[in-house]
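Methods — Computational structure assignment.
A single polypeptide chain was analysed. Its primary sequence is given first, followed by the predicted tertiary structure written as structure tokens.
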Amino acid sequence: MTRAATSSKHPLLWAIVAMDTPESNALLAPRLKSASNVRCRTNLQGRAETRHRLGRALALQLLAQTGSGPWSVETTQRGRPIGIGRGGERHISISHTGSLVAAAVSIVGPIGIDIEWQDPARDFVGLATAAFGQSEARAVAIQGLKTFYRIWTVREAISKATGKGLEEALDRIDRTPDALVDGAWSVSQGTWLIGHDVLKGDFSMALAVQLSSVDAIAAVSATSIASSRFEIESR
């Protein structure tokens, strides 16, 4: 059902799957009574419930690559998901946009993932002015849509890693590294590794990992964002 783009020793893994596909049905089937009723249960529960189930199923699939199970996905008091298993705790983040659901798991520090479709009809200049730091808002005004979504997803990813949510994402403090290059990690504020890439279909995807040691920073920096991706396949 799955194929890893990297080994299980990787410090972090992330994956994306679309709803109503053989890959998503394969992830959901073991958590329903039978594979044959996945679509029926999905329709009855609604797409919001499906996204919730699929996000956790995707996180569990990634957790299985980090150590022997069984694993469960629990929720902290601040509403942040966390993986619990015999191998200890794992940091988790889940995101969705439209029909896409993304998840990330880290063994080296708190992680956040965010994915957004680059909607050209959005008032991105107004939103940047209201929510971003001054340097970030200025960059959006000059560079446009793609820069807005790069910064927005990074800010969201950071806020998910810290557990502070929209309060932090909208605080008008500059948080995105100036030298951020799509597909590569960038160090920010000494202890953060930030990554962003544009996926097929004009989707922005950002990862933010808060690390506590130089060794952890080196371990993640030695990888690429693409090599950290875990490919989900149908049976």
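Note: The chain has one domain: 2-232.
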